[in-house]
From TrEMBL, chain A:
Alphabetical list of NCBIfam families matching this protein: ant_ant_sig (TIGR00377)
Domain of life, per lineage: Bacteria
Pfam families registered for this protein in UniProt: HATPase_c_2, STAS
Name assigned to this protein: Anti-sigma factor antagonist
Taxon lineage: Bacteria, Bacillati, Chloroflexota, Chloroflexia, Chloroflexales
From TrEMBL, chain B:
Domain STAS: 1-116
MF annotations from Gene Ontology: anti-sigma factor antagonist activity
UniProt-recorded name of the protein: Anti-sigma factor antagonist
InterPro entries: Anti-sigma_ant, STAS_dom, STAS_dom_sf
Superkingdom: Bacteria
Family: Belongs to the anti-sigma-factor antagonist family.
Species whose genome carries this gene: Chloroflexus aurantiacus (strain ATCC 29366 / DSM 635 / J-10-fl)
Upper taxonomic lineage: Bacteria, Bacillati, Chloroflexota, Chloroflexia, Chloroflexales
Length: 249, 116
């Protein structure tokens, strides 16, 4: 889960838009779904800006997101006055111009753009709006496949960027269970280790997991010395790494 | 968001560029109001470069159209706010909110201006 906390004023809109667009893309939403989420979040944040607090004393709100189980989940929390969605009129989208009311469009758009919408209020927690966008089911198949990436080179400052790029390409195509095959890696430096840490973090943020397989002794030693054998899932072979993914089910 | 404004013979043409949200919608509203204040009530909004619009922007549009149509030169001829060049994403928002049937929407600016 990642979050930002911002003051509920109009300057927040551009920042929340950039934040949530990047998040949706990382989670694997396509262009249209990303745009839908962006608009829904804009409407949610606009509501907080316009209604939660007194305009002269805007409080904060926290925008968070999670990505797992083929769902992109966004929450907006504020500690302003209680919001009761049942008091918002549902716009009659068929009524002609003369009778058309302007209220309630924001909430209405949120409910049309997202797959699930929930409002909760508690005195301690404040207002919590939860919105969910489902990822298409063909991406579910991608996520359930184990992707094995052989690395046929040393991993150092020079080669690490290429490794990151290769893995990120797989991630953007939906891969969530990744095994890195180290059998042909003769050398790993701290730059390489850093790249692996970032890859691992990114995968975990998206609800996935990284496993390292078939490390040569001198490469394994780097993990041992740095204490990172505790942090990474390291397996003697690719077969065992694959099996470890199935066992988690 | 950027706005360009051309005063044609009968019609005022506004190009809306970029994003209309709670922060920028007031600026669009102000421009439209200033055109009304000059006694001119026929406006074409060219949305070809509009990337994004949220409900505060939609509100400005509907209020503008209502106000423009309230002004009548004769029983047959009055004011209006008409739309030219609706990009696909914006059309989607219009369809979702019923706005596609609330406005006259034209495929290009010449047609829209000529419709008055």
């Amino acid at each position: 889960m990642e979050s930002i906390t911002l003051t509920a004023d109009l300057d927040a809109l551009a920042k929340t838009s950039a934040f949530i667009t990047a998040a949706a893309e990382r989670c694997g939403l396509d262009e249209r779904a990303t745009w839908q989420v962006q608009l829904a979040v804009d409407e949610a944040v606009t509501n907080v800006i316009q209604h939660a607090y007194d305009p002269d004393q805007p409080g904060d709100f926290t925008l968070s997101w999670q990505c797992h189980d083929q769902r992109f989940i966004v929450t907006v929390r504020d500690h302003g006055r209680q919001f009761d969605p049942s008091t918002v009129p549902v716009p009659d989208i068929t009524s002609p111009l003369e009778e058309r009311q302007v209220g309630g469009l924001g909430i209405y758009l949120i409910t049309r753009l997202m797959d699930e919408v929930h409002f909760e209020f508690s005195p301690q927690g404040g207002n919590l709006l939860t919105m969910v966008k489902y990822l298409p089911s063909d991406q579910a198949e991608e996520a359930n496949e184990v992707v094995v990436i052989p690395i046929n080179d040393r991993i150092d400052a020079l080669t690490a960027p290429r490794l990151s790029k290769t893995v990120n390409e797989q991630i953007s195509q939906g891969a969530r269970q990744i095994v890195l095959d180290f059998s042909n890696v003769p050398f790993l430096s701290s730059s390489g280790l850093r790249a692996l840490l970032l890859i691992r973090k990114e995968l975990m943020t998206l609800g996935g997991e990284l496993r390292l397989a078939a490390l040569q002794p001198q490469v394994h030693e780097v993990f041992t010395i740095t204490g990172f054998t505790q942090v990474f899932n390291i397996h003697p072979s690719v077969t065992e790494a694959r099996a470890a993914f199935s066992q988690r089910r | 968001m950027e706005l360009t404004h051309r005063r044609l013979n009968r019609v005022d043409l506004i190009e809306v560029i970029g994003r209309v949200d709670a922060a920028s919608a007031p600026q669009l509203k102000q421009l439209i109001e200033s055109i009304f204040a000059d006694g001119r009530y026929r406006i074409v909004l060219d949305l070809s470069k509009l990337e994004y619009i949220s409900s505060p922007g939609l509100r400005v549009l509907i209020e503008a159209r209502k106000k423009a149509r309230d002004w009548k030169i004769t029983d047959l001829e009055g004011g209006d706010v008409r739309i030219a060049n609706l990009p696909p994403r914006i059309k989607e928002v219009f369809d979702l909110t019923g706005f596609s049937s609330l406005f006259e929407i034209y495929g290009d600016t010449v047609e829209a201006v000529g419709s008055f």
